[in-house]
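Why predict the complex rather than its parts? Because the way molecules touch one another can change local conformation, and only a joint prediction can capture that. The input here totals 674 residues.
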Amino acid sequence: MGKRIGKNTVLMENNPCVKSFASVCGKKEAQGPLGNQFDKIFEDTTLEESSWEKAESRLQAESVNLALEKANLKTQDINYIFAGDLLNQCMSSAFGLRELGIPFLGQFGACSTMAQTLFLAATTIEAGIANYSVAVTSSHFCSSERQFRFPLNYGGQRTPTAQWTVTGSGAIVIEHQNNPGIKIKHATVGKIVDLGIKDANNMGAAMAPAAAKTMQSFFEDTKTHPSEYDMIFTGDLGEVGSNLFKELMLKDGFHIGENYNDCGLMIYQKEVQDVHAGGSGCGCSASVLCSLILRSIKAKKWKNILFMATGALMSPTSSQQGETIPGVAHLINLVSE
Amino acid sequence: MGKRIGKNTVLMENNPCVKSFASVCGKKEAQGPLGNQFDKIFEDTTLEESSWEKAESRLQAESVNLALEKANLKTQDINYIFAGDLLNQCMSSAFGLRELGIPFLGQFGACSTMAQTLFLAATTIEAGIANYSVAVTSSHFCSSERQFRFPLNYGGQRTPTAQWTVTGSGAIVIEHQNNPGIKIKHATVGKIVDLGIKDANNMGAAMAPAAAKTMQSFFEDTKTHPSEYDMIFTGDLGEVGSNLFKELMLKDGFHIGENYNDCGLMIYQKEVQDVHAGGSGCGCSASVLCSLILRSIKAKKWKNILFMATGALMSPTSSQQGETIPGVAHLINLVSE
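Output of the joint prediction:
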């Protein structure tokens, strides 16, 4: 059984561990600095499907199937799948995974969803109610643009603070493991923070305060300090958001130094790939976690890291009604022992 | 720690119990047979807000605040809130609950969400990582109609198989409890089932096969029989769906008899209130569970019941793309000891 530490953090004591992980991505992501880290690349981002939504659904099915294959597991071995995406009614997840026959729990945390699914998959292990649970998320540039902003054919101009939604998906199989492995040790689930940002093209700024709040809470609860971790990753704050995040942390006495990076800044080569403030989307933190990050922990390059995915909980309807953008961030502490 | 029973059911052994519950609803629901069971009624379904979406958000905030009040708890006592609704990007949940400052995990299971949030809130107790968790969902007739079908002003005709989305919300506080209480004893999380129904005005038929599959699985895993339960409730199959559900169960040897009812059939007086096939929406099963059902268990009228909420995981986009409607159903066994 797990236990609570401080105000808002939990320590998992039943050893929920990463059994396997897989990532898939599109052409633009393959051309970025992490290109050789992904398990499967789709040069044709339609994946030969008839709509962008169906293409995104396929991304999720692909990453889950790859993760199961690596774990040498069949779909019937999996007790729960926690899946989410950015589309209305979590369409990519439901339609992408409906053939698999795995008990399905749809998640929505916007771009924070990868940390959310990972937390809940680990919780089912911690509760003793699952042998294997899967966490998966996806996003697709083309389905996101048309749903949240403009259809691609419109040819809208992107603002300097805009981020580029990643076409990709990441999936992780979690199991109870006594042997050394990659363990989900601590988790801090975030509260919604809304400081009044309204610009849907500046989501990094909308998410940064939530990110700072969750991470401060984690450091206070665990009585640790940023420098104690091999690496600290945020999900997709991008350039604007991650600078703001560092500033907010510093104001509260936490210096976020050289051991920090943002998945949204890691996945593209900013100057060359014209992505403005960086990558974003559920698939951003998912595909970076399920490639470079978990590979590096597996290779013992890093032994103790923080992964915090951040989400902007707005919808086109809320923006049209003049609402501000609520942010949320969930933190997972992964350790290799 | 909990344990798995059979293929797909879990037994919770750390006593996750209902500490308090509350329900709120609109005018039409108040005029129905359960009118005197709800905690708060809004005769004006705008709740004096400027949009239907904001009105729905208020419904969620109201039911959560009422449940906390009854439990004599403050928002800071709650470790997690599992919240969901039918709107794009779970808008009612995020905007309704953002002021509360409770660690937030957005859920999407369409109309199955009340069982999903209840299962996950119980799981955090089972895992020992929460003292108190809240499960809440909502729906609103007007926000749903305009998102999934037509704006009200259009004055579209409703088909005979159409269901009426409930304006309402239900919230439950879950805690670990050694003393006698209302316990979440078993849970069966469902797989997605899609038999090819395409009619968004006949969601009962789309959900019935998933409902039958989950419930059969529960009876097989627990080696029990429908007649052993005081009552069996489905979420919102409505008239068409619940008849189909009973037929499917009978075909597999399970006679669903007099101890069965459907929240969608209970909430309105069908002949008088012109709701066609019955009520639906996340708020349907939530408000019936958090009024009549839990009140009756608390009063020891029923001691052992099954509550299974059912969801149709389609989106307007998937329907426009010619997709069929995937169904899902999650079952919770509530016992009073």
